[in-house]
Amino acid sequence: MILSMTGYASQEYNTANGVLLLELRSVNHRYLDLQLKLDDNLRYLETLVREIIQAKLGRGKVDCRLSLIRNQTADSTQQLNHAMLKQIAENAKTAAQYFPDAQPVNMLEVLQMPGVILLSTLDSEALETDLKMVLNQVLEDLINSKAREGEKLKTIILERLAEVEQHVAKVKPMMPILINQYQNKLTLKLNEANASNDDERIRQEIVIFAQRIDVDEELVRLTSHIAEVKRILNAATAAGKRLDFLMQEMNREANTLGSKSVAVETSQISMELKILIEQMREQIQNIE
Question: Sheet containing 32-38: which strands, arranged edge to edge?
């Protein structure tokens, strides 16, 4: 199954501790770059979250946002931190000696200070269990999203690959014709330059030329690469890096075909091959 590195999934889940909000967003990257943004209530679970995601995803820049909204039942057991309030009051009284004209303390702002209100204790064991379940569900949704996008990429690559096959199929039967055309031109030129009509010299020149423009090896390798690309596209393993390598190899053969070209037709085919290979390579950059 071909997976794109682009995908998105999110979920809200009610738990005894509150509402878990989880969002995963993935884009293409050379390797797995995992960015976690967890609120303070869930910070202690960062290692667990990282391990679960790394076990499911191979490549891509992945942003994970995870937060917990405490429910009203939990919030109803809030208590004031009297020790913290006493400390704030003493500090405010001391500071007022230096700033007698300062505004009075705003009680709402004091209540919003960290540590002033003590929340009910989280059930850490239950929260961890709920988090594992939700994270695995969202990861499954993300993978399904990546798979749908991967199928689109696979279709595009196969379409371009079919065009490459068509161009490769055109080249081989053209070579005997090109050699024959060159033989006629060479014979004519040598006859004009040499009245003795040295047939042996003509044959030697033709053999040298035929060896120089022989592209059979390049065509065989291109055909082999095409078959390997198809095999990888239908395999159930990570494919991006291997496909990228094959595009480099195919481009090398297309370049060699162009350098050996002695006719406009083969030069055009070489150019078309390189364009198609580049189009496939651009799509492959998004494959995991």
Answer: 7-15, 18-27, 60-69, 32-38
- Residue 209 falls within a domain, yes or no? yes
CA atoms within 13 A on the CB side of 24: 30
User: What is the per-residue burial (b if ≥16 Cβ within 10 Å, else e) of 159-169?
Assistant: ebbeebeebbe
Angle between helices 264-284 and 124-193 (to 10 degrees): 170
**Whether residues 219 and 104 fall in one domain:** no
Based on the domain organization, do 212 and 259 belong to the same domain? yes
pLDDT digit string (tens) for 60-94? 999 999 999 876 554 445 667 788 888 888 888 88
Q: Which two tokens stand for residue 111?
A: 């209540």
1 belongs to a structural domain? no
Tokens 């997976």 belong to which residue?
3
Q: What is the tens place of the pLDDT at every residue in 143-163?
A: 999 999 999 999 999 999 999
**Domain residue limits at 23:** 7-74+124-147
| C-alpha distance across the termini of the chain, in Å | 10
| Nearest partner of 132 among 54, 49, 44, 24, judged by Cα | 49
How, if at all, do strands 18-27 and 60-69 pair? antiparallel
Alpha helices in 77-215 (DSSP H): 82-98, 107-111, 124-193, 199-212
Q: Give pLDDT, residue 197.
A: 57
pLDDT for 211 equals: 60
Separation between Cα atoms, residue 23 and residue 12, nearest integer Å: 9
Rounded to two decimals, what is the model's pTM?
A: 0.69
Task: Report, as ranges of residue numbers, the positions in the chain whose pLDDT lies below 50.
Answer: 74-76
